């Protein structure tokens, strides 16, 4: 039997996972790991990182052709952008834990 506080807790967890309470309980009872849904901010960060990965591949190709010195500034720019995204993701994770 659930107490009211139990139900509120389960309802909150189900909402974070993007599921109904019924579906959340069903998945939990079946031994499935029920995780939190990816936030729009996280989706955006993942998309940004995918674009950066493409840029890194292009820079690696240019580096093989022209040498490291020719692409050094692009490398620093990408490192800075990746750092910014990691900070953004960390801040969003800390905000969602509160």
TrEMBL record:
Chain ranges of the Bacterial mobilisation domain: 46-89
UniProt cross-references to InterPro entries, sorted A to Z: MobC
One Pfam match: MobC
Organism superkingdom: Bacteria
Protein's name in the database: Bacterial mobilization family protein
